[in-house]
Design brief:
The structure is a homodimer of 366-residue chains. Chain A has 366 residues and is an alpha/beta fold. Chain A contains 12 helices and 13 strands. Chain A has a 7-stranded mixed β-sheet, sandwiched between helices. In chain A, strands 2-1-3-4-5-12 form a 6-stranded parallel β-sheet, sandwiched between helices. Chain A binds a DNA duplex (30 and 30 nucleotides) through helix 2 and helix 4.
DNA sequence: ACCTTGTGCGGGAACGTTCCCGCATCAATA
DNA sequence: TATTGATGCGGGAACGTTCCCGCACAAGGT
């Protein structure tokens, strides 16, 4: 047992990786000294320090991260799950919002020294059970989602949205969707619209429930009829059909339901449309045109979307961005604070949105 | 030093986690026995096995994954990088192709017992250096990309596309884009098109180079003029402008260049369009309409895209899908084979594509 | 009666690192 | 010359697990 094939020799000793002791022996030093030299700690003479470093470099030494982690007690790993739609496995990334949120979260985490492990929605706990996760980020958990409970039960801190507020070991960052919805409705009103209609998914997500509530509140305060079309399932098809329902008249088949007074035809046609469901702006625009609307002449349009196509349509579509990058940064910052400074406060952060006003929601001056 | 606050006591001993020895002591057994009981190995009497399990359950024992990994020598962790566009940090997920590929890779890997760590493009090696990665998956590395070299130099196996073929420690899975491009051109020809034009990014990616080569080969074999418009940068804006260049006539400003004989106006107008650059199908369709084309009357259209909006346009757009799920599965299967069965073969796998023919590329029968 | 075989469990090393010490050595001071 | 203090380096434990052994004891055969 000299160099190759240590433990239970496989067949051809893939790469008898060089350890700290190997470097130490080669350099005629102790592993303690070499460790100190490489980590720039301890009291060492410059000569010895350089000798250790040079030897390590020459031998191609790379520290064993796992051993380090064991010593340190933390793996600097964060799990990342998107709740909701556990039935539609791993399609979540197709949504521009989640795509950008995911990318930004990974990048921010890495800059703070943490790596993000992608956990597809609906992952069994047996699958992430043997990952040394320091925390788990759960974005948009469904109301009946098991994942949050499972992770908390495993003793792992959870970072999610406001729906986990108050639970032991759970922290949250959320978007200020109440103000956002109100600001869009205000914008519609400023532009002269009096019959705005809202298209929103009929999901168990806290986010969508809050959109609905904010809209209801605003309508009540302004004495306006509440016009809502709810979309049964995600995807461009259902959303486009819901938009058509909203624009054409009464409720139709296919999962959509109309709450309270639905939009009516004729003189009562809607004059503004707020689409909160994730849908491609060009498709929404096309649907409006098919139903004889001129945007923004007859209909003001705002989509809650991160879809970049919005600025390339004719007219460009006004979007309300949730600023996923800002959410990611706020979330990771909060996480690091809790994990490293033992911040016991289960407080949360509210991130503001931004309305990018484009031609689709600005009334023409004629 | 009894239970709480072992090493250098922090301030309030967050959670003095229960270890194997704690369970053992509590149950009046040895750690060896408890370990065997929980892992269902060794020779134990049913009574003892159950006692150990019950005690562990009662005490809320959860094994330390890091220690396990140290013993096992592998962390079952795979890095995942998207090369190219290191300048546009972490936007890659917005492309439906990469989004689906990423999701599918994560899901497949997890099913095989590996977890995926998301490494934003342009990550410094100092950032992933202290991750216990068993392998790194690099999708679409740019020709001058440092990442592949860095990872290989770190002694970590790389799984990428065919561009890494032949390099020590590198393995590949690629898409059969040559056949794919030819099949689309054949399809155009079958539908009566004689002046197809190709829109392709001007990138250093192997994929795009191969698209260009396949097109050139097919044109030469069929004695057709080679019509190509290259797109300088990614994004819907540039691609749409490139499409307009292709449809309108000669080369224009804004980064596009026309190789060889560019598409001409008048009677020589193109009658088929193959867009390989990632772009929103509705936007491409709209651009064609703006230039007076009827699709598929005057112009057959095929997009290489995973964008789900393609089936919701009017007419629906024919797409060539690279089948990201299939690529992911082939890649991970190959990876597991190499990592676990020590398969030294640096061979690769070629995954076939699929053409989803829709109305946009089928000539009307009149 | 002894030797063998098998079963049930525990001791201890190993995985590779970090870090707390302790022991030399040497300069500076009494 | 003896005492202190600082400096430079190494020994060994610890992190929490798995797994190779070895030991005790019981049962079966001669």
């Amino acid at each position: 047992m000299t160099s190759g094939s240590r433990h239970g020799g496989q067949h051809s000793a893939p790469t008898p990786r060089v350890r700290l002791v190997d470097v130490a022996r080669e350099a005629g030093l102790s592993k303690t000294t070499v460790s100190a030299a490489l980590n720039d700690t301890g009291r060492l003479s410059p000569a010895v320090r350089e000798k250790a470093r040079e030897t390590a470099r020459r031998m191609g030494y790379r520290p064993n991260v796992t051993a380090r982690q064991l010593r340190a007690g933390r793996a600097k790993l964060i799990g990342y799950v998107v709740g909701e739609a556990a039935d539609a496995p791993s399609v979540f990334l197709e949504s521009p919002y989640f795509a950008r949120l995911t990318g930004a979260t990974a990048a921010t985490a890495l800059r703070r020294g943490y790596a993000l492990v992608l956990l597809p929605s609906g992952s069994l706990q047996s699958e992430w059970a043997d990952l040394p996760l320091d925390a788990v980020v759960v974005t948009d958990p469904g109301a009946d989602d098991r994942i949050v409970d499972d992770v908390l039960a495993a003793g792992i801190p959870v970072f999610s949205d406001r729906s986990v507020e108050g639970r032991q070991g759970a922290h949250w960052v959320d978007v200020d969707i109440d103000s956002a919805v109100r600001s869009v409705l205000d914008h519609f009103r400023d532009q002269g619209a009096r019959r705005p209609v809202l298209v929103v998914p009929d999901s168990t997500t806290r986010f969508h429930a809050e959109v609905f509530a904010a809209h209801r509140g605003w309508c009540a305060e302004h004495g306006l009829q509440e016009r809502v079309v709810r979309v049964g399932e995600p995807g461009n098809g259902p959303v486009v059909r819901a938009v058509e329902t909203a624009l054409a008249g009464g409720p139709e088949a296919d999962g959509e339901t109309v709450a309270d007074g639905g939009p009516a035809a004729g003189a009562d046609r809607p004059d503004a449309l707020l689409v909160v469901a994730e849908a491609s702006p060009p498709l929404v625009l096309e649907a409006a045109r098919r139903h004889g609307y001129d945007v923004p002449g007859d209909l003001l349009l705002v989509c809650v979307s991160e879809d970049a196509t919005a600025e390339h349509t004719e007219p460009p579509v006004t979007t309300l961005t949730l600023r996923p990058e800002a959410i990611a940064e706020a979330g990771i910052d909060h996480l690091v604070k809790v994990l490293e400074h033992g911040s016991r406060e289960p407080s949360g952060t509210l991130v503001p949105t931004r309305l990018d006003v484009r031609a689709s929601s600005v009334r023409k001056h004629d």
